[in-house]
Amino acid sequence: MTLENLFTPRSLAVVGSASPGKLGAVLIRAVLDGGFAGPVYAVNPKSQGVDSVPGYPSIEAIGQPVDLAVIASPAGSVVDVLEDCGKAGTRAAVVITSGFGETGNHAGEAALLETARRHGIRMVGPNCAGIANTHHRLFPTLEWHPPQGEVALVTQSGALGGVVLAWAAEQGLGISKFISYGNGADLGQEELLHYLSGDPQTRVVALYIESVRNGRSFMEALSACAAQKPVVVIKAGRTDAGRRATASHTGSMAGSDAVYEAAIRECGAVRARSVEEMLDLCRAFTTTCLPRGRRVAVVTNSGGPGVLAADQAAELGLEVPEPSLALKERLREFLSANCSLRNPIDLTVEGTPDGFRKALAAMLEEEYDAAIAINVATPYLDSVGLARGVAGGTAASGKPCLASFLPPQLSREPEQLLKQSGIPNYASGERAAAALAHLAAYSEAQRQPAAVSPGKYRESAPAERADRLFGGRRALLEPEAMEWLKSEGIPVPPFALAASPEEAAQAAARIGFPVVMKVVSPDILHKSDQGGVILNIRGEKAARAAFEKIRAAAAGKDFRGAILYPMVKAGREVLVGMTGDPQFGPVVAFGLGGIYTEIWRDVALRVAPVTAAEAHEMIRSLRSFPLLAGARGGRRSDLDALAEMLARFSQLPLEFPEVGEIDLNPVFVFEKGLAVGDARVIRRAD
Fold first, then answer.
1. What share of the chain is helix, strand, coil (3-state, %, to 5)?
2. Going by C-beta distance under 8 Å and a sequence separation of 6 or more, which residues neighbour residue 468?
3. Whole-number percent of the chain with pLDDT over 90
4. DSSP one-letter string for 267-334
5. Cβ contacts of 483 within 8 Å, gap of 6 or more
6. How would you label 348-362 residue by residue, b for 16+ Cβ within 10 Å and e otherwise?
7. Which of 639, 618, 641, 617 is nearest to 628 (CA)?
8. In 3-state terms, what secondary structure has residue 487?
9. What is the mean pLDDT of residues 555-560?
10. Which of 208, 137, 198, 228 has its CA nearest to residue 3?
């Protein structure tokens, strides 16, 4: 995407009052203080300038090309200002002004967008805190001026962006671009991610979002960017309280957090749970390299912090194994007898620069993929020398090392030395371990085929197929659902619908005893609770009696008969479901079925559709996966058949877009093959 006028303008105008203390004057001062090299103009009704910046009544009156307009005039004037930009040939605008969609003024925001598009103007905002491009010395923003670097910060909240910029400056984390996009009437997450994916000055993208308008377009943009460089995402609104706050702040609804979690992971991006974690990850991604595996060496001069770091690493999926006997023998050649060699390698307070250097070099050379180096200093220790030892021990390995040199009063000079050697320093070993776990996960994701290909999430099937499917009704009856699933390639067992006791007896004989019989009624959702399910029916007489019993249980309801199936032999019960998300559309759920669904709540989510390979990943992501894989001598389920079924199932809501919810629970998975045991199919509410 071409946004040169926005991020590398040759000239700019600030539109708004230039009186002292007013936003226009503040923005002009910010641009001047940042050292912008091109001409700057002030535009306001009084033609008032600021210091050396001349004032004009309009952009058109300037008489010179203006690449970028930064607008801080009253809300009622912004459309006219954009018209002025269009006449003057200005093709980029940052609208700081608030009072649009976030306050319910959607008509005013729509008018801004219409005007901008009519004149070919790309617009950031409204209701934003501005932008920055440190490599162009461009700072038309109300927030801090960050140091130059390689992290692009894209944020829906200008205030939060300002806090992040301030903390980044404090920690020495350099920023390439800062974009507070506010309401995102024109340029939003998708366009900015596409732009930053190809920005040579940006190595890492940090993204704060509260909601997205089109989840599927967002996923395509996020996946495309994450394929080029790390993208660290903070999604606000994880809880009910957070979602309420989000809605009142932005006027937009936040989607289900579990779906956002699945979408972000599926796109290969990294989710941070806090601003601190986001900054930790950005420092790691911009400072060091990616590990090729999960085996981590911890080398420390203090036992307690080393153990805490090892615990955190193991809990987050890293491996902290003991060195081999051969490696221990090598370590004993240069470490004192007081050192622990079990990993963490505890050098004790007697640890020397040479001890750190040799221990790290030996462990990274032979058996480990990454290292965490911990120095808990006292004033008499040579922390600078220890930092040199850490840097020297990792230099030749080509593997990442993260450090925790403490306390901060004694670690400022060592921290700079470590940073220059490609080793980020953290406030604790636990935070270093958390950052390393994300590096390892991202490295693994990068080695996998891209999950989201262009067009994967676009819905194109005609809705009339679903119209024929439902016939205007809200839900399918179970026999209709089973017939539909069968016609679409989803394995179902033999079944028959009976409208009388005699039909039930005949159907049971055809299917083969024993059979199960279930009530068919649009009024009965939970069949077992209503006495509408009878198992292990043997013989025609028993089938007639079962039908009568079910019909009696449905007294007063819209009784349509009974559906019969063969009793299923032993198989693992799983749940396969689909629901519609407001932002992302159809979402597939998979987990253990039957009673385990509510007890374990062990469910994997993916935005539909999924491939068979992605379905295998869903299956393996469950905590309960060992049960499906045949742990402790149990029967192994047919995982290939299950993955193929999940992939086909995920296509159904796209081919039948009026299907709003599908619940297959249980699905019986056997050693060979599978079969759906129960099905609910509900029409989309809208």
1. 40, 20, 40
2. none
3. 79
4. TT-EE-SSHHHHHHHHHHHHHS---SSSBEEEEESSHHHHHHHHHHHHHTT-B-PPPPHHHHHHHHTT
5. none
6. eeebbbebbbbbbbb
7. 639
8. helix
9. 95
10. 198
Lowest mean pLDDT among 261-265, 370-374, 452-456, 506-510: 452-456
Predicted confidence (pLDDT) per residue in 32-52, tens digit:
999 999 999 999 999 999 999
Cα–Cα distance measured from residue 427 to residue 415, given in angstroms and rounded to the nearest whole number: 11
Domains, in order of start, for the chain: 1-129 (3.40.50.720), 143-287 (3.40.50.261), 289-446 (3.40.50.261), 494-566 (3.30.1490.20), 572-683 (3.30.470.20)
* Predicted local distance difference test score (pLDDT) of residue 450: 59
Strands 585-592 and 603-607, by their bridges, are antiparallel
Q: What distance in Å separates the CA atoms of residue 524 and residue 178, rounded to the nearest whole number?
A: 55
Residues 6 or more apart whose CB falls under 8 angstroms from that of 629 comprise: 636, 637, 639
Residues 313, 149, 181: CA angle, nearest 5 degrees: 95
∠ CA 375-272-122, nearest 5°, is 125
pLDDT exceeds 80 at position 242: no
Residue among 135, 160, 162 nearest 149 (CA): 135
User: How many angstroms separate the CA atoms of 540 and 249, rounded?
Assistant: 65
CA 261 to chain centre: 5
N residues, the chain: 686
Element (DSSP H or E) covering residue 649 = helix 639-655
Residue 355, pLDDT score: 96
Residues 6+ apart with CB under 8 A from 567: 514, 515, 516, 535, 536
Residue 597 has pLDDT above 70, yes or no: no
Report how far residue 428's alpha carbon sits from residue 27's, in angstroms, rounded to the nearest whole number: 39
Token readout for 152 is: 């692009």
User: How far is residue 244's CA from residue 22's CA, in Å, rounded to a whole number?
Assistant: 32
Are 608 and 654 a contacting pair, CB within 8 Å? yes
d(CA 127, CA 444): 39
The lowest-confidence range among 161-175, 315-329, 638-652 is 161-175
Contacts of 59 (CB under 8 A, 6+ apart): 13, 15, 41, 43, 66, 69, 81, 84, 85, 88, 90
Q: Which residues contact 32 (CB under 8 A, 6 or more apart)?
A: 40, 51, 52, 53
User: CA of 17: how far to CAs of 13, 21, 42, 57, in Å?
Assistant: 12, 9, 9, 11
- Rounded to the nearest angstrom, the gap between the alpha carbon of residue 637 and the centroid of all alpha carbons in its chain is 30
272-297: burial string, b at 16+ Cβ within 10 Å, e else: beebebbbbbbbbbbbbbbbeebbbb
pTM: 0.89
With beta carbons less than 8 A apart as the criterion, state whether 269 and 380 touch.
Answer: no
Please calculate the CA angle 90-92-96 and round it to the nearest 5 degrees: 115
Give CA separation, 247 vs 97, 156, 210, 336, 511, in Å. Answer: 20, 13, 9, 60, 54
